[in-house]
Amino acid sequence: MKTLQFKTNINCGGCIKAVTPTLNQQAGPGNWQVDTANPDKLLTVNSDTLTATQVVQAVEEAGFKIQAA
């Protein structure tokens, strides 16, 4: 399983709630997390199949900014 990390603007519980359906659909529940305590708001995704491009696209479609960490 590969680990992908991204800087985001997902910075609170409400933001996490908004992006959860999209990330659960793409990566699966329990295969991603956002460290809102980190200044870069790091999103970590564990997946065998997702590419960085797919994760970026999913998060942007949910209305958030994202870039490779």
UniProtKB/TrEMBL annotation:
Stretches assigned to the HMA domain: 1-67
Organism annotation: Hymenobacter defluvii
InterPro entries documented for this protein: HMA_dom, HMA_dom_sf
Name of the protein in question: Heavy-metal-associated domain-containing protein
